[in-house]
Description:
The chain has 5 helices and no strands. By secondary structure, the protein is mostly helical. The chain has one domain. The site of zinc ion has 6 residues, from α2 and α5.
Amino acid sequence: MSDWDALNEFLRTDPRDIGCDLALDALHTYSEMAAAGANPEELFPGLAVHLKSCRACSGDHDALVRAIREFGGDERR
Ligand SMILES: [Zn+2]
């Protein structure tokens, strides 16, 4: 039981998580890279961590990627 507590604590307090404010600052660039098929996780590891733990930001990210692909991307598939 205490092992689970420790794991949960660790997952909750990932030091790489940059938080919502910084995530929103970089989210547009991150989403454009994702929509272009690049690897934004390499450039923004803290943001990638945040998106895994924050539903609000990952929802924004998904919507942005979809909008970029639909209206602004250069997808040929
Ligand atoms: Zn967030």
